[in-house]
Amino acid sequence: MKLFTIFGDPVSHSRSPLMHNNVFKKLGIDACYTRTRLENGSELRDVFFAKALSGANVTVPHKESAYEQCDEVRGIASMVKAVNTLVLENGRLIGYNTDADGFIRAIESFGEVRSALILGAGGTARALSVALRAKGIDVTVLNRSAARLEYFRNEGFAAYAWDEFSPASYGMLINTTSAGLSDDELPIPAGLLGELLARTQAAVDVIYGKETPFLREVKSCGLPYKDGSDMLLAQGVLANHLFLACRYTPEEIEPAMRQSFLY
């Protein structure tokens, strides 16, 4: 039996085991997917091999740490220096990032978007910023402090800390922070969020499975919005495709994974 897991902290909320195990069941794959809470991201590689895993997903706050511990990084993950999918290949740890493509698929229903403001500066923000820019969308990044903005500034993105930011109008406001995941916090101060929502056309929170304080404010403004469910599904399909060594197409995987959202 092949073993897979999702590394993160927190991780008890993750739907990934339901999603991937349903695919394994429907396709007749002898495999099992679990959750692994990992406090210290630097231990990820050791834990991966100690558990004799064939692959894993990585969620907050360990995507950048996962990148550093891979033997090889492929695709957009090498550009954003953040990994959310790990695959064991001939004894080597190979890193990918399926967040970017998953997000682009998730926002297709919004139609044309010309600009986006990303809240947060972690691994997910990196992946989305590169993916959105590749689609011709003007991207700005806003983070609590300037400490994590160096990557974005080096890559030519407009990136600001709270105390140096002046609100503008955006096609989409995207929360990539963990605010609201296990607490009742907003990703940015309430006053600033209110200003932005008054000048924004749509909003996305990458957190799924609950109404976060961020989404509560978005809904109260009557804006089109999404939580992270569509992104979760899309990136999960791509990750499972990699887990199964591309033997099954995303089109074969998606129905079983989508069905898991009914449970």
Rounded mean pLDDT is 96
Estimate the helix proportion, in percent. Answer: 25-40%
Output the strand order for the largest sheet.
2-1-3-5-6-4
CATH fold node name of the largest domain:
Rossmann fold
Binned strand content = 15-25%
CATH superfamily of the largest domain: Leucine Dehydrogenase, chain A, domain 1
- Helices and strands: which structural class? alpha/beta
Rg (CA only): 18 Å
Separation, N- and C-terminal Cα atoms: 24 Å
What is the overall silhouette? Answer: globular
What are the segments in which pLDDT stays under 50 over at least 5 consecutive residues?
A: none
CATH architectural name of the largest domain: 3-Layer(aba) Sandwich
Number of domains: 2
Largest sheet composition: 6 strands, mixed
- The CATH class of the largest domain is identified as Alpha Beta
H/E order of the elements?
Answer: EHEHEHEHEEHEHEHEEHEHEHH
List how many beta strands DSSP finds: 12
In DSSP terms (H or I, runs of 4 or more residues), the helix count works out at: 11
What can you tell me about this protein's structure?
The model has no long low-confidence stretch (mean pLDDT 96). The longest helix is centred in the last third of the chain and has 15 residues, at 229-243. The chain has helices at residues 16-27, 44-50, 63-68, 77-80, 99-106, 123-134, 150-154, 190-197, 213-220, 229-243, 250-259; strands at residues 2-8, 31-37, 55-58, 72-73, 85-89, 92-96, 115-119, 138-143, 158-161, 172-175, 203-205, 225-226. Strand 10 (172-175), helix 8 and strand 11 form a beta-alpha-beta unit. Helix 1 (16-27) packs across helix 11, helix 5 (99-106) crosses helix 6 and helix 10 packs across helix 11 (250-259). The chain folds into two domains: 2-97 and 229-262, Leucine Dehydrogenase, chain A, domain 1 (Rossmann fold), CATH 3.40.50.10860; 101-226, NAD(P)-binding Rossmann-like Domain (Rossmann fold, 3-Layer(aba) Sandwich). The strands form two sheets. Strands 2-1-3-5-6-4 form a six-stranded mixed β-sheet, with helices on both faces. A six-stranded parallel β-sheet has the order 9-8-7-10-11-12, with helices on both faces. With 263 residues, the chain is an alpha/beta fold. It has eleven helices and twelve strands. Helix content is 36%, strand content 21%.
